[in-house]
Specification:
Layout lengths: L2 E6 L29 H13 L4 E6 L3 H7 L7 E4 L5 H15 L4 E6 L3 E2 L2 H15 L4 E6 L10 E7 L5 E7 L4 H10 L2 E11 H11 L1 H11 L7 H9 L7 H6 L5 E6 L3 E2 L4 H7 L7 E4 L2 E4 L4 E5 L5 E4 L4 E5 L4 E5 L6 H17 L3
Parallel strand pairs: 1-2, 1-4, 2-3, 6-10, 12-14, 13-15, 14-16
Antiparallel strand pairs: 4-9, 5-11, 6-9, 7-8, 7-9, 8-10, 16-17
Length: 357
Protein backbone atom coordinates (compact mmCIF):
# COMPACT_ATOMS: atom_id res chain seq x y z
CA UNK A 1 0.00 0.00 0.00
CA UNK A 2 1.62 3.22 -1.18
CA UNK A 3 0.36 6.57 0.12
CA UNK A 4 0.50 9.52 -2.27
CA UNK A 5 -0.35 13.19 -1.98
CA UNK A 6 -2.20 14.79 -4.88
CA UNK A 7 -2.15 18.59 -4.75
CA UNK A 8 -4.75 20.40 -6.86
CA UNK A 9 -3.11 23.60 -8.15
CA UNK A 10 -6.11 25.08 -9.88
CA UNK A 11 -7.34 27.92 -7.66
CA UNK A 12 -7.86 31.22 -9.49
CA UNK A 13 -8.10 33.51 -6.48
CA UNK A 14 -10.12 36.17 -8.30
CA UNK A 15 -10.95 37.90 -5.01
CA UNK A 16 -7.23 38.56 -4.50
CA UNK A 17 -7.01 40.80 -7.56
CA UNK A 18 -4.89 42.69 -8.53
CA UNK A 19 -2.10 40.52 -7.03
CA UNK A 20 -3.68 37.24 -8.13
CA UNK A 21 -3.83 37.30 -11.92
CA UNK A 22 -4.46 34.75 -14.68
CA UNK A 23 -0.69 34.65 -15.24
CA UNK A 24 0.15 34.04 -11.55
CA UNK A 25 -2.95 32.93 -9.63
CA UNK A 26 -3.48 32.45 -5.93
CA UNK A 27 -1.56 29.16 -5.30
CA UNK A 28 1.66 30.83 -6.44
CA UNK A 29 1.40 33.95 -4.27
CA UNK A 30 3.81 34.38 -1.32
CA UNK A 31 1.16 33.84 1.36
CA UNK A 32 2.40 30.53 2.79
CA UNK A 33 4.59 32.05 5.47
CA UNK A 34 8.32 32.71 5.35
CA UNK A 35 8.04 34.05 1.82
CA UNK A 36 6.77 30.71 0.52
CA UNK A 37 3.96 30.35 -1.96
CA UNK A 38 0.76 28.67 -0.81
CA UNK A 39 1.63 25.74 -3.10
CA UNK A 40 5.08 25.37 -1.56
CA UNK A 41 3.63 25.48 1.96
CA UNK A 42 1.12 22.74 1.04
CA UNK A 43 3.90 20.58 -0.38
CA UNK A 44 6.12 20.96 2.68
CA UNK A 45 3.19 20.34 5.04
CA UNK A 46 2.40 16.89 3.61
CA UNK A 47 5.95 15.77 2.84
CA UNK A 48 6.64 14.25 6.29
CA UNK A 49 3.61 11.97 5.85
CA UNK A 50 4.22 10.64 2.34
CA UNK A 51 7.90 11.33 1.64
CA UNK A 52 9.64 12.64 -1.46
CA UNK A 53 8.73 10.91 -4.66
CA UNK A 54 5.13 10.41 -3.47
CA UNK A 55 3.75 13.85 -4.30
CA UNK A 56 1.84 14.66 -7.49
CA UNK A 57 0.45 18.01 -8.60
CA UNK A 58 -2.50 18.45 -10.98
CA UNK A 59 -2.31 21.73 -12.89
CA UNK A 60 -3.56 23.16 -16.16
CA UNK A 61 -1.18 23.61 -19.07
CA UNK A 62 -0.98 27.39 -18.64
CA UNK A 63 0.53 27.15 -15.14
CA UNK A 64 2.62 23.97 -15.37
CA UNK A 65 5.83 25.99 -15.68
CA UNK A 66 5.07 27.73 -12.37
CA UNK A 67 4.81 24.34 -10.65
CA UNK A 68 8.17 23.33 -12.10
CA UNK A 69 9.69 26.51 -10.68
CA UNK A 70 8.11 26.12 -7.24
CA UNK A 71 8.67 22.42 -6.55
CA UNK A 72 11.36 19.81 -7.09
CA UNK A 73 9.22 17.21 -8.83
CA UNK A 74 9.92 14.65 -11.50
CA UNK A 75 8.16 15.60 -14.71
CA UNK A 76 5.85 12.57 -14.55
CA UNK A 77 4.63 13.79 -11.15
CA UNK A 78 3.21 16.94 -12.73
CA UNK A 79 -0.17 15.88 -14.10
CA UNK A 80 -1.12 18.45 -16.72
CA UNK A 81 -4.70 19.08 -17.82
CA UNK A 82 -5.19 20.74 -21.21
CA UNK A 83 -7.64 23.01 -19.35
CA UNK A 84 -9.02 23.02 -15.84
CA UNK A 85 -12.32 21.14 -15.43
CA UNK A 86 -12.91 21.56 -11.67
CA UNK A 87 -11.98 19.08 -8.96
CA UNK A 88 -13.79 15.85 -9.92
CA UNK A 89 -12.07 15.42 -13.32
CA UNK A 90 -8.70 16.47 -11.85
CA UNK A 91 -9.02 13.91 -9.06
CA UNK A 92 -10.24 11.26 -11.49
CA UNK A 93 -7.26 11.83 -13.78
CA UNK A 94 -4.81 11.59 -10.87
CA UNK A 95 -6.53 8.46 -9.52
CA UNK A 96 -6.36 6.78 -12.93
CA UNK A 97 -2.62 7.42 -13.16
CA UNK A 98 -1.91 6.36 -9.57
CA UNK A 99 -3.93 3.15 -9.95
CA UNK A 100 -1.81 2.14 -12.93
CA UNK A 101 1.38 2.87 -11.00
CA UNK A 102 0.27 1.28 -7.71
CA UNK A 103 -2.86 -0.85 -7.75
CA UNK A 104 -3.37 -0.57 -3.97
CA UNK A 105 -2.53 3.13 -3.65
CA UNK A 106 -4.13 5.57 -1.25
CA UNK A 107 -4.59 9.25 -2.20
CA UNK A 108 -4.41 12.28 0.02
CA UNK A 109 -6.12 15.07 -1.95
CA UNK A 110 -5.15 18.61 -0.97
CA UNK A 111 -6.07 22.06 -2.29
CA UNK A 112 -2.91 24.02 -3.02
CA UNK A 113 -4.09 27.36 -1.64
CA UNK A 114 -4.97 26.81 2.02
CA UNK A 115 -3.12 27.73 5.20
CA UNK A 116 -3.13 25.35 8.17
CA UNK A 117 -1.68 26.03 11.61
CA UNK A 118 -0.69 23.36 14.15
CA UNK A 119 0.76 21.32 11.30
CA UNK A 120 1.83 18.39 13.43
CA UNK A 121 -1.73 17.96 14.67
CA UNK A 122 -2.91 18.05 11.08
CA UNK A 123 -0.38 15.38 10.08
CA UNK A 124 -1.57 13.14 12.93
CA UNK A 125 -5.11 13.48 11.58
CA UNK A 126 -3.83 12.52 8.12
CA UNK A 127 -2.28 9.36 9.55
CA UNK A 128 -5.59 8.45 11.18
CA UNK A 129 -7.36 9.10 7.87
CA UNK A 130 -4.96 6.81 6.01
CA UNK A 131 -5.79 3.94 8.41
CA UNK A 132 -9.52 4.54 7.98
CA UNK A 133 -9.26 4.88 4.19
CA UNK A 134 -7.38 1.58 4.02
CA UNK A 135 -10.58 -0.04 5.30
CA UNK A 136 -12.51 1.33 2.32
CA UNK A 137 -14.03 4.53 3.75
CA UNK A 138 -14.08 7.87 1.93
CA UNK A 139 -12.53 10.29 4.43
CA UNK A 140 -12.82 14.05 4.60
CA UNK A 141 -11.85 16.62 7.23
CA UNK A 142 -14.11 19.05 9.06
CA UNK A 143 -12.58 22.18 10.53
CA UNK A 144 -13.93 23.19 13.93
CA UNK A 145 -15.59 26.56 13.14
CA UNK A 146 -14.56 29.66 15.04
CA UNK A 147 -17.23 32.04 13.74
CA UNK A 148 -20.44 31.81 11.63
CA UNK A 149 -18.72 31.96 8.24
CA UNK A 150 -20.88 32.32 5.16
CA UNK A 151 -18.04 31.79 2.67
CA UNK A 152 -17.48 28.09 3.50
CA UNK A 153 -19.52 24.98 2.99
CA UNK A 154 -20.35 22.92 6.08
CA UNK A 155 -20.42 19.25 7.02
CA UNK A 156 -22.95 17.95 9.53
CA UNK A 157 -21.56 15.22 11.75
CA UNK A 158 -23.41 11.93 12.11
CA UNK A 159 -22.79 9.01 14.45
CA UNK A 160 -19.30 7.82 15.41
CA UNK A 161 -17.20 5.29 13.55
CA UNK A 162 -14.78 5.46 16.47
CA UNK A 163 -13.67 8.09 18.99
CA UNK A 164 -11.90 10.17 16.30
CA UNK A 165 -13.98 9.56 13.18
CA UNK A 166 -17.66 10.23 12.45
CA UNK A 167 -20.03 9.41 9.63
CA UNK A 168 -21.13 12.37 7.53
CA UNK A 169 -24.83 13.13 7.82
CA UNK A 170 -24.87 15.70 5.04
CA UNK A 171 -22.91 18.36 3.19
CA UNK A 172 -24.36 21.87 3.32
CA UNK A 173 -23.69 24.61 0.80
CA UNK A 174 -22.51 28.07 1.87
CA UNK A 175 -25.23 29.32 4.23
CA UNK A 176 -26.58 32.79 4.88
CA UNK A 177 -25.54 34.49 8.11
CA UNK A 178 -28.63 33.42 10.09
CA UNK A 179 -28.17 29.77 9.10
CA UNK A 180 -24.44 29.89 9.89
CA UNK A 181 -25.20 31.28 13.35
CA UNK A 182 -27.70 28.44 13.86
CA UNK A 183 -25.06 25.88 12.88
CA UNK A 184 -22.65 27.17 15.50
CA UNK A 185 -25.24 27.37 18.27
CA UNK A 186 -26.58 23.90 17.51
CA UNK A 187 -23.15 22.28 17.22
CA UNK A 188 -22.18 19.30 15.13
CA UNK A 189 -21.37 21.37 12.05
CA UNK A 190 -17.86 21.83 10.66
CA UNK A 191 -16.30 23.82 7.84
CA UNK A 192 -15.74 21.74 4.73
CA UNK A 193 -11.97 21.69 4.21
CA UNK A 194 -11.94 20.14 0.73
CA UNK A 195 -9.26 17.67 1.91
CA UNK A 196 -9.85 13.97 1.25
CA UNK A 197 -8.19 10.58 1.80
CA UNK A 198 -9.28 7.37 0.05
CA UNK A 199 -8.19 4.34 -1.90
CA UNK A 200 -7.72 5.19 -5.56
CA UNK A 201 -9.77 2.15 -6.55
CA UNK A 202 -12.62 3.30 -4.29
CA UNK A 203 -12.85 6.81 -5.73
CA UNK A 204 -12.72 5.38 -9.25
CA UNK A 205 -15.65 3.12 -8.32
CA UNK A 206 -17.60 6.17 -7.17
CA UNK A 207 -16.79 7.98 -10.43
CA UNK A 208 -18.09 4.96 -12.35
CA UNK A 209 -21.33 5.09 -10.35
CA UNK A 210 -22.04 8.81 -10.31
CA UNK A 211 -20.03 10.27 -13.20
CA UNK A 212 -20.14 7.59 -15.92
CA UNK A 213 -19.22 9.97 -18.75
CA UNK A 214 -16.04 10.95 -16.94
CA UNK A 215 -15.32 7.29 -16.21
CA UNK A 216 -15.56 6.45 -19.91
CA UNK A 217 -12.98 9.13 -20.73
CA UNK A 218 -10.65 7.96 -17.96
CA UNK A 219 -10.88 4.32 -19.09
CA UNK A 220 -9.98 5.26 -22.64
CA UNK A 221 -7.11 7.48 -21.51
CA UNK A 222 -5.63 4.67 -19.43
CA UNK A 223 -4.70 2.81 -22.63
CA UNK A 224 -2.45 5.69 -23.70
CA UNK A 225 -0.66 6.56 -20.45
CA UNK A 226 3.09 6.37 -20.85
CA UNK A 227 2.92 6.43 -24.66
CA UNK A 228 3.80 9.17 -27.15
CA UNK A 229 0.08 9.52 -27.96
CA UNK A 230 -0.89 10.48 -24.39
CA UNK A 231 -1.02 14.26 -24.75
CA UNK A 232 -2.86 14.27 -28.07
CA UNK A 233 -5.43 11.81 -26.76
CA UNK A 234 -5.81 13.69 -23.48
CA UNK A 235 -6.35 16.96 -25.34
CA UNK A 236 -8.96 15.35 -27.57
CA UNK A 237 -10.91 13.65 -24.81
CA UNK A 238 -10.58 16.35 -22.15
CA UNK A 239 -12.59 18.74 -24.31
CA UNK A 240 -15.54 16.36 -23.83
CA UNK A 241 -15.32 16.40 -20.02
CA UNK A 242 -17.93 18.40 -18.12
CA UNK A 243 -16.59 20.58 -15.28
CA UNK A 244 -17.92 19.49 -11.88
CA UNK A 245 -16.65 19.60 -8.32
CA UNK A 246 -15.95 16.44 -6.34
CA UNK A 247 -18.48 17.61 -3.72
CA UNK A 248 -21.38 17.94 -6.19
CA UNK A 249 -20.33 15.00 -8.33
CA UNK A 250 -19.45 12.41 -5.71
CA UNK A 251 -19.38 13.30 -2.02
CA UNK A 252 -22.99 14.45 -1.67
CA UNK A 253 -24.20 11.11 -3.08
CA UNK A 254 -21.66 8.51 -1.97
CA UNK A 255 -22.17 6.02 0.84
CA UNK A 256 -19.75 5.35 3.70
CA UNK A 257 -18.36 8.89 3.85
CA UNK A 258 -16.69 9.74 7.15
CA UNK A 259 -15.22 12.89 8.65
CA UNK A 260 -12.36 13.59 11.01
CA UNK A 261 -12.92 16.84 12.94
CA UNK A 262 -9.74 18.85 13.45
CA UNK A 263 -9.31 21.92 15.61
CA UNK A 264 -6.54 23.85 13.86
CA UNK A 265 -6.06 27.34 12.52
CA UNK A 266 -7.24 27.08 8.94
CA UNK A 267 -7.96 29.51 6.13
CA UNK A 268 -8.66 29.14 2.45
CA UNK A 269 -7.21 32.67 2.05
CA UNK A 270 -10.25 33.42 -0.05
CA UNK A 271 -10.18 37.22 -0.04
CA UNK A 272 -8.24 40.24 1.20
CA UNK A 273 -9.93 40.17 4.58
CA UNK A 274 -8.60 36.63 5.05
CA UNK A 275 -5.13 37.91 4.12
CA UNK A 276 -5.50 40.67 6.71
CA UNK A 277 -6.47 38.07 9.31
CA UNK A 278 -3.45 35.82 8.72
CA UNK A 279 -0.75 38.47 8.43
CA UNK A 280 1.05 39.78 11.53
CA UNK A 281 -0.51 42.98 12.88
CA UNK A 282 1.15 46.20 13.90
CA UNK A 283 -0.31 48.83 16.20
CA UNK A 284 -3.92 49.60 15.34
CA UNK A 285 -4.46 46.15 13.79
CA UNK A 286 -2.62 47.21 10.65
CA UNK A 287 -1.23 44.42 8.45
CA UNK A 288 1.19 45.47 5.78
CA UNK A 289 3.54 44.21 3.12
CA UNK A 290 5.90 46.63 1.42
CA UNK A 291 6.61 50.31 2.02
CA UNK A 292 3.82 51.82 4.12
CA UNK A 293 3.75 54.70 6.59
CA UNK A 294 0.55 55.04 8.59
CA UNK A 295 -0.75 57.79 10.88
CA UNK A 296 -3.94 57.20 12.86
CA UNK A 297 -4.61 54.14 10.72
CA UNK A 298 -6.65 51.28 12.12
CA UNK A 299 -7.78 47.79 11.08
CA UNK A 300 -6.33 48.14 7.61
CA UNK A 301 -4.41 45.99 5.14
CA UNK A 302 -1.77 47.62 2.97
CA UNK A 303 -0.13 45.50 0.24
CA UNK A 304 2.47 47.62 -1.51
CA UNK A 305 3.71 45.52 -4.40
CA UNK A 306 4.75 48.56 -6.41
CA UNK A 307 7.80 50.76 -5.87
CA UNK A 308 6.02 53.73 -4.32
CA UNK A 309 5.51 54.44 -0.63
CA UNK A 310 1.90 54.29 0.56
CA UNK A 311 0.96 56.81 3.26
CA UNK A 312 -2.34 56.50 5.13
CA UNK A 313 -3.78 59.17 7.40
CA UNK A 314 -6.88 58.85 9.55
CA UNK A 315 -8.37 55.78 7.85
CA UNK A 316 -9.78 52.50 9.09
CA UNK A 317 -11.32 49.28 7.75
CA UNK A 318 -9.57 49.55 4.39
CA UNK A 319 -7.86 47.24 1.95
CA UNK A 320 -5.21 49.02 -0.11
CA UNK A 321 -3.43 46.90 -2.70
CA UNK A 322 -0.98 48.61 -5.03
CA UNK A 323 0.67 46.81 -7.96
CA UNK A 324 2.35 48.14 -11.11
CA UNK A 325 -0.81 47.24 -13.05
CA UNK A 326 -3.62 48.42 -10.76
CA UNK A 327 -4.61 49.94 -7.43
CA UNK A 328 -7.41 48.52 -5.29
CA UNK A 329 -8.99 50.48 -2.44
CA UNK A 330 -11.91 48.75 -0.73
CA UNK A 331 -13.83 48.48 2.51
CA UNK A 332 -12.31 45.59 4.47
CA UNK A 333 -15.79 44.23 5.16
CA UNK A 334 -16.60 44.11 1.43
CA UNK A 335 -13.51 42.15 0.41
CA UNK A 336 -15.60 39.26 -0.93
CA UNK A 337 -17.04 41.58 -3.59
CA UNK A 338 -13.69 42.16 -5.31
CA UNK A 339 -14.34 39.42 -7.87
CA UNK A 340 -17.59 41.11 -8.91
CA UNK A 341 -15.82 44.48 -9.08
CA UNK A 342 -13.21 43.03 -11.43
CA UNK A 343 -15.95 41.63 -13.66
CA UNK A 344 -17.65 45.03 -13.74
CA UNK A 345 -14.31 46.59 -14.63
CA UNK A 346 -13.87 44.14 -17.50
CA UNK A 347 -17.36 44.90 -18.80
CA UNK A 348 -16.69 48.63 -18.52
CA UNK A 349 -13.45 48.31 -20.49
CA UNK A 350 -15.16 46.26 -23.19
CA UNK A 351 -17.88 48.88 -23.42
CA UNK A 352 -15.29 51.65 -23.80
CA UNK A 353 -13.61 49.72 -26.61
CA UNK A 354 -16.90 49.37 -28.47
CA UNK A 355 -17.86 52.99 -27.84
CA UNK A 356 -14.61 54.98 -27.58
CA UNK A 357 -16.44 58.31 -27.82
Amino acid sequence: MGVYAVILAGGKGERLWPVSTPERPKPFLPLGGGGRSLLRATYERVLPVVGKGQVFVVVDLEHASLVRTELELMEEHIIIEPQGKNTAPAIGLAATILRMRDHESIMIVLPSDHLIGEEERFREALKTAIEVANNGHLVTFGIVPTYPATSYGYIQRGGPLNDKVFYVRRFVEKPNSKTAEHFLSEGGYFWNSGIFVWQTKRILEEIRTYLPKLENVLKELAHFYGTSAWWDKLTELWSQVEPISIDYGIMEHAQDVVMIPIDVKWSDVGDWRAVWEILPKQEGEVAQLGDHFGIDTFRTLVWAAGEKTIVTLGVKNLVIVDTPEALLVADLNRAQEVREAVRWLSQFRESKKRNPG
